[in-house]
Each structure stands twice: as structure tokens, then as C-alpha cells.
Amino acid sequence: MIEVERIAIVRIKEELDVLYSRVNPPYGVIPKWHAPAATDEEIAAVEKRLGIALPAEVKEVCKEFSGITDSAPYFMGEQFRFFQEKAAGVIGHESASFLEDNFRVNGIFPLNQWGVPDEIWNPRIEYCEVIEEYEESKADGDAIESVVAYIGCVEGILSDELFVHIGNSESESVFIYLNASSENFGAIYNVDASRSEAFLLVYKIADNYLDFIECIKKSLEIQLQSEGA
User: Fold this and answer.
1) Cβ–Cβ < 8 Å for 218, 75
2) Distance CA 214, CA 206 (A)
């Protein structure tokens, strides 16, 4: 079964190289948009550092893809329409118009950088602090109208250390949930936050890491079709 999955992953990788060569200049050149794949030893080291067993599909994909370093469109299709309706219902006002099915994935880190905060910014902790600010404002009687919504995940997921930062998107940051006791184990999430507009949304964008890579491929195909390329 894993061998069949591996063949499919190699095929996706080849297709992605061709697609990127058509959408990102210089055209006709296949960019080296990923570093050498992770070894079994490197995967084991990450699992030891995080104190978890990675989902099988993560390990298989990361043997071929260790990081996505070019910006990629991300379209959610029917899943997005469901999400948009639910988000609009939670928010309850026209601010939901900022939700458009065309955000971009700016980069996914190599596996050995998953969950490693830089010296300046730890997004998971920062988002928790944003929520605390909203709650304190309400407790103090401030007029701030804030919205915190979780879609496709449990409330408070940002407080779980197994909600692991793996990359960045145009909206904010990309996470994977590595809590094996959750029904959403291995799911990929985007966080969209704005202090100025007082909202923070956490929503699922893919059920697992292989699905995430497939969605990037489909999104590139959609972009090419819209450009008539």
C-alpha cells in the first residue's frame, strides 16, 4: 500500500514541477522549489523532538517533498463554499466578504523546521495572545466587537502544542494538527487573523498532508485554465 502511495507521490511531484514551470517566470524552467527529501533518520529525529508519531502520509510525502518554497494558489472549491457560509454565520456581518477562495500558500517549511519558532515570532502563541486581548477587552467593558471562530476543528486548538506551525500563507499561517487522539489527526489548517478588524479564524483546508499537496496541484491547474495557458 505504501509503495502504491509512493508512486502516486512521485507522479504528483513531477506534475507540480511542470505546472510551476508554466505559471512562474522564467517560463519553461522547472524551478528547484524543494530541497532534498527527508531521510528516515531525519523523520525519526522530528518525531522525537515533537514527541509524536507523524501520520503515515506525512512521512511518505516528506521523503519526496521537504519544503514548498514558491507561492502557490489555493482553491478550496465546494469545501470553501461550506466554510464561507459557516464563517459568515458565525461572524454575523459583512466582514465575511474578506473570505475569498483564492488565498495563496507562500511556503511550507522543510520537515525539520516544523514547529520550530524563529527568534521573533511564534505564531501559535501570538494567536493565543490575540484571543486573550479580545477577552480582556470584553471583560473591561470595551466596545471592541471581536470574533474568534474555529471551523473544522475544536475550540481552543491553538492552545494545543500539537497544533504545529509548518508554513505561511497569504492570509496568515499554515498548521498541521498532530494530536493522534483527535479525529482531525493530520489535518491541515489556515489561520486568518486581524487585530485591526478584531477577528481570528482557524479553519481546515485539507484532511491530510497528501490531500494538501493534491489541492496545490489542482489549484495550479485552475490558475492555468483561468489564464488560458
Assistant:
1) yes
2) 9
CA atoms of 222 and 228, how far apart (whole Å):
10
Matching residue, cell 507521490 = 9
**52 vs 43, 91, 94, 108, 140, CA distance in Å?**
11, 35, 41, 20, 40
pLDDT-based confidence at 86, cuts 50/70/90? low
Say which residues have a Cβ less than 8 Å from residue 124's Cβ, sequence separation at least 6: 158, 163, 165, 175
Strands 199-206 and 147-151: parallel
Q: Are 59 and 43 in contact (CB under 8 A)?
A: yes
Greater confidence, 208 or 79? Answer: 208
Yes or no: say if 74 and 219 are a contact pair by the CB < 8 Å rule. Answer: yes
pTM of the model: 0.88
Residue 207, all three cell numbers: 484532511
Give residue 94's pLDDT band: very low, low, confident or very high (50, 70, 90): low
Distance of CA 161 to the CA centre of its chain: 16
For strand 72-73 and strand 104-108, is the pairing parallel, antiparallel, or unpaired?
A: antiparallel
More confident call, 164 vs 135: 164
